[in-house]
Structures are given as C-alpha cells and as structure tokens.
Specification:
The chain has helices at residues 10-13, 20-37; strands at residues 42-48, 53-58, 92-95, 100-103, 119-120, 125-131, 134-139, 144-149, 155-157, 162-167. By secondary structure, it is an alpha+beta fold. The strands form 3 sheets. A 4-stranded antiparallel β-sheet has the order 3-10-8-5, with no helix packed on it. Strands 7-6-4-9 form a 4-stranded antiparallel β-sheet, with no helix packed on it. A hairpin with a 2-residue loop joins strand 6 (125-131) and strand 7. The N and C termini lie far apart (93 Å).
Length: 173
C-alpha cells in the first residue's frame, strides 16, 4: 500500500519538533536581537516561555539623550536604582522592600493611603508594591509627617528605592 503526501497528517509531514535546548537557544537569540533593536535605554525585559510573552520597559531618558540598549543579563549604571534625592536634615526615608509597581491607593480611583502633610503612625500602610501579582503593603517604621512622596502612582520601583520621606511630628514644615 502506498500513501500519497496528501494523505499524511500535518504532524507526520512536518519537520520534527526542535529539542528543548534548541528552543531555549533560539528564544535567547531572539531576545538578544530584540534588545539590541529596541530604541532608547532598556530598563527591563521580561520573557515568558509559556504562551511566549515579552514585556519591555524603557529607562527614562535624560534631556532627550537616549542611551544605547543594554544586552539582557548585563547591568549598567542606568539599571541601578537612582540615588536618593538630597534628603532634608532630620527626615526619614520610607524605602521599597522589593522590586515592583508602587501604588499610592488601595484601588484605582480610591483616595491615596497618605498625602504630603498627613501624619502617620508606626505600622501604618503608606503604599503598596505589587510584585508577581502579590500586593505587598509598605508600612511606616516610625511616626511622622509625610514630607515628600517621591514616586508616582503605578510607577516601577527598585529594591531599597526611597518612596517617600517623613519628618518627625511637630517639626515645622
């Protein structure tokens, strides 16, 4: 019995599936090629293999100058958390305990947890950092008055990045 090519199932006539190592290598090469082709400075590139999703986040540009893209897996000065702005004497920094997205309010459209001028108690929630679909509350370590909020709602934050500054209660603004 002879079988014509039209009688073969698509699976039988297709080329064999690549080995997992070959797939990983091909995906890595695609990601590196993509990273080098993107405009501006690359801040974060996330690749997922299941259902193949790629997320790209660009670094903020300084006065219209674009930094060349970085290859995945490399760390450059622009990838490190920004230095904290000059601190006022006597303020305390509230820092992000992890990398993620900062949210100033418990839900979209809701009032923020705190505003500049609000007094906070130790252990009070002053924001949320979302990481890997988990909402992590940011708590004030000590009592004080919110002097400055340095991160906008829904902005990415790095580990140990200063989110806001508190001044001791009762101190003049």
């Amino acid at each position: 019995m002879t079988v014509s090519p039209s009688e073969l199932s698509p699976r039988m006539s297709a080329t064999p599936a690549p080995e997992p190592a070959d797939e990983a290598r091909a995906l890595r090469e695609e990601v590196v090629k993509l990273a080098y082709s993107l405009p501006g400075g690359l801040r974060r590139l996330t690749v997922r293999d299941g259902d193949r999703a790629i997320e790209v986040e660009w670094a903020a540009e300084v006065a219209g100058t674009a930094a060349p893209p970085a290859a995945p897996g490399t760390t450059t000065a622009r990838d490190l958390p920004e230095a904290a702005p000059d601190a006022d004497e006597g303020t305390t920094a509230v820092r992000s305990p992890l990398v993620g997205t900062f949210y100033a309010a418990p839900s979209p459209g809701a009032d923020p947890f705190v505003r500049v001028g609000d007094e906070v108690e130790p252990g009070q929630t002053v924001g949320i950092v979302e990481a890997m679909k988990l909402m992590n509350p940011i708590l004030a370590d000590e009592a004080g008055v919110v002097a400055d909020v340095l991160v906008g709602d829904a902005e990415s934050v790095e580990y140990d990045q200063v989110i806001m500054r508190l001044r001791p209660s009762g101190r003049a603004r």
